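Most newcomers find our protein records easier to grasp once they have seen one. Sequence and backbone structure share a record, each on its own labelled line. To make this concrete, we reproduce a full record directly below:
***
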Amino acid sequence: MTDWVKKALTRKIQRKGPRGRQEVFFITPRDELVYGVKFAIGMTVCLSAMEIAHLGFLHAWNDELFVTITGLIGLVTGVLIGHHA
């Protein structure tokens, strides 16, 4: 599995089988969730680059960009932590 987002969202469940053997199941996330997390991570990177450019060229802090970046980081962190709960 080369997709690190899908690997991070995959659940591993262990249980005893009918004859006492350990069985391991992997539950993979839906593609919509994986694409949504990838989009949120990509947008966080793009918005961070915009904030750095804003600081570099205009020498001023943009509060709206910072609030958006903070919200997206919270969204991605919540999805990654909440999916495994």
Summary: The CA atoms of residues 72 and 78 lie 10 Å apart. The chain has three helices and two strands. Residues 4-82 form one domain.
